[in-house]
Design goal:
GO molecular function, one term: phosphorelay sensor kinase activity
Enzyme class: transferase
Number of strands: 22
CATH architecture of the largest domain: 2-Layer Sandwich
Radius of gyration: 44 Å
Keywords: ATP-binding, Kinase, Membrane, Nucleotide-binding, Phosphoprotein, Transferase, Transmembrane, Transmembrane helix, Two-component regulatory system
Structural class: alpha+beta
CATH topology of the largest domain: Beta-Lactamase
Number of helices: 15
Helix content: 40-55%
Shape: flat
Domain PAS: 275-347
Strand content: 15-25%
InterPro entries: HATPase_C_sf, HATPase_dom, His_kinase_dom, HisK_dim/P_dom, HisK_dim/P_sf, PAS, PAS-assoc_C, PAS-like_dom_sf
């Protein structure tokens, strides 16, 4: 019995000693692995710095040879730097000052294949590349293992040449690996079969050998870094039992210390958590944004004071409530319940930008809200409900309505001002048919007085034709001036151009301007406010004709053109481009930056609102209004409008449906 116990204790002691030896060996191996990784990291960092230094000295600059010589003096691992043209013909080269020229014995031609391979790889990669190392014989029967680095030099997107740097593997180990790593260890570059290419450091011999390897994966080449260390076998403890008891005592004290530290840390964490909860509650209570949380069954589990103030209900009146919510308008309860059922079933994800809905306060008043909703995810990644943020947008809608009304009044004023400016043209156009009507009427009276009735019918027909002509002029002005609802509709480009042509033609005939229209067949309709876009076209056309008239252009020509815009790379909505081009003097450089500024005008009688309103109208449609020279002479204004889809929405997308809470 005792023998078995002694044997068991002895076996335990032997196992403990063996485990201690294994542990010490593992510690030595781990330290060697860390040192090897550190050495590999030092080499990678140094190679990266060398590459940056090489890139900072492009071969096209003057004084390159001096800079290359300075680089060689600062970096002993380089033995040669060359500048080669795009055909790999050497232009200039500088050798290291610390040894005899490395290629002095066999010449550079023997290594040409390695240089060509590295540079071909660099050209293919578009960056630096390394060649496989090779042995370079030296005078006196010696030699060294070297490696080529090729860096392409690109100027204005074209290959201009190469920078070729030759590394000495032995000098890399000497210069790039820290001395503290090679003091008692041996570091080397080896091949896959263990053949050493370069060696540095002298290790103290011992009974056990520890080795570690790291791969240096360079562009175009892979080097194996090996580090060897010799250690003596670990000694036994002088008193195993004493060491065990001491170790257990220290372990017990350490456990108690850790337990006390853990308790203090737990108390501190709990205090931090309480502070964080108090801070979050204070922050949520101070928000003007309403917050509401619901579980997966639709029951309200949390509301902040801002939400309660928004709807007029207290938190006690809202907590635990499900559909129908007390702040839902009665006329929308059925619709909201259906949409909430779809939401809770996970069949519809709310948009990240939010959606609008209508809520009812406790006093029965309605107000619009913007709802931003997101799923509530717990620490295990499981959804437990929905979190919603609410913004009362009543004031924003009121301001938007005031702005819209002001914009409408301003646009109506601009249209009336346009018609006022065209009063002389209208007078001229109406004088001709009215004069003709008066002449035919006088002639008819004369015929009646003379008893001749044969020409009365022809005179009456001419009077009707001239009256119809005058009516067309008046109707075109009426259609332009009258106030319409700002509803966007699908309108053919030809219809927009035809609508403004009568008014454009009035001024064109007076000023002697030739008007050309270029509208290819098959153009799709655009989604726009027809009245506003017609005003944009008319303003641009009138400005162009007035500019040519003031400049005294010999043969003034105005061109209205519509074409498709090139499709977007991301496959977005389609657009049409409208352009108004003239052959006038162009826009002076000193006013180009202020051309679209409100109330800026170069005309004595102008209001300075035409181009500003044009840009506003186009941007409200999501388009862009810009101008550029119309070579060889003149200016062309261009603006874009979205193509109407099948459902009347831009790009063919249906209008977004109104969401509900």
């Amino acid at each position: 019995m005792w023998a078995a116990l002694v044997g068991l204790v002895a076996a335990l002691l032997v196992i403990l000693v063996w485990l201690a030896g294994r542990y010490e060996a593992s510690q030595v191996q781990d330290k060697l692995d860390v040192d090897t990784a550190q050495a590999a990291g030092d080499i990678r960092t140094a190679l990266a710095r060398n590459l940056q230094a090489l890139q900072a000295s492009p071969p096209s600059r003057e004084g390159w040879a001096l800079e290359a010589a300075q680089l060689l003096r600062e970096r002993r691992e380089w033995v040669r730097i060359e500048w080669r043209d795009s055909a790999l013909v050497a232009v200039a080269a500088v050798d290291t000052p610390y040894r005899a020229p490395p290629f002095g014995r066999l010449g550079r031609e023997n290594a040409q294949a390695d240089v060509q391979l590295a540079c071909a790889n660099a050209r293919r990669r578009g960056g630096p590349a390394y060649a496989a190392s090779y042995f370079l014989p030296q005078p006196g029967g010696l030699g060294m293992e070297v490696m080529e680095l090729c860096l392409p030099h690109v100027v204005a997107g074209q290959l201009a040449g190469y920078m070729v740097a030759t590394y000495s593997l032995a000098e890399m180990l000497t210069s790039l690996v820290g001395p503290q790593l090679t003091r008692n260890q041996e570091v080397s570059f080896v091949e896959a079969d263990g053949t050493r290419l370069a060696l540095h450091g002298v290790a103290q011999r011992g009974s056990r050998i520890f080795s570690s390897q790291q791969l240096l994966d360079l562009p175009g080449n892979t080097l194996v870094l090996r580090m060897d260390s010799w250690r003596a076998a670990p000694d036994l403890f002088p008193n195993v039992l004493t060491a065990l008891v001491t170790g257990m005592s220290i372990a017990l004290a350490a456990v108690l210390a850790l337990l006390g530290k853990d308790t203090r840390r737990r108390v501190r964490v709990e205090q931090d958590l309480a502070d964080a909860l108090a801070f979050r509650k204070a922050m949520e209570d101070s928000l003007v944004t309403g917050l509401r949380a619901r579980d997966l069954q639709g029951r309200i589990t949390y509301v902040n004071p801002a939400f309660c103030q928004m709807v007029g209900f207290s938190a006690e009146e809202l907590m635990g409530k499900s559909a129908p919510a007390p702040y839902w308008p009665p006329e929308l309860v059925d619709e909201y319940q259906k949409r909430q059922a779809v939401r809770l079933a996970g069949q519809h994800v709310p948009p990240r930008e939010g959606f609008e809905s209508v809520f009812m306060r406790k006093d029965g008043s309605r107000f619009p809200v913007l709802i931003i909703e997101a799923p509530l995810i717990n620490a295990q990644g499981v959804q437990t409900g929905w979190m919603s943020a609410f913004l009362d947008v009543s004031e924003q809608r009121r301001i938007e309505e005031l702005s819209r009304a002001s914009q409408e009044r301003l646009q109506a004023t601009a249209r009336l001002a346009t018609v006022g400016e065209m009063a002389s043209l209208l007078s001229h156009e109406l004088s001709q048919p009215l004069s003709a009507i008066a002449s035919y009427a006088t002639g008819s009276l004369n015929l009646l007085q003379g008893g001749a009735v044969d020409g009365i019918e022809l005179a009456m027909r001419r009077i009707a034709e001239q009256a119809e002509r005058a009516g067309k002029v008046i109707r075109s002005v009426h259609d332009f001036v009258r106030r319409r609802d700002q509803a966007r509709e699908a309108v053919a480009p030809q219809a927009l151009v035809d609508a403004v042509m009568p008014l454009v033609g009035l001024q064109a005939r007076k000023l002697g301007v030739t008007v050309l229209t270029r509208l290819p067949e098959g153009l799709p309709a655009v989604l726009c406010d027809r009245t506003m876009v017609e005003q944009v076209l008319l303003n641009l056309a009138r400005n162009a004709m007035q500019a040519m008239d003031e400049a005294g252009v010999a043969r003034p020509t105005l061109t209205l053109q519509v074409r498709r815009c090139p499709p977007a790379a991301d496959g977005g909505e389609a657009w049409l481009e409208f352009s108004v081009a003239d052959g006038g003097p162009g826009v002076p450089r000193d006013i180009q930056d202020r051309l679209f500024t409100p109330f800026f005008t170069t005309k004595a009688e102008g209001m300075g609102l035409g181009l500003s309103l044009c840009r506003t109208v186009v941007e409200q449609h999501g388009g862009l209004l810009e101008f550029e020279p119309n070579l060889p002479q003149g200016t062309v204004f261009r603006f874009t409008l979205p193509v109407a889809g099948p459902a009347g929405a831009p790009g063919g997308l249906p209008a977004a449906a109104l969401e509900a809470a």
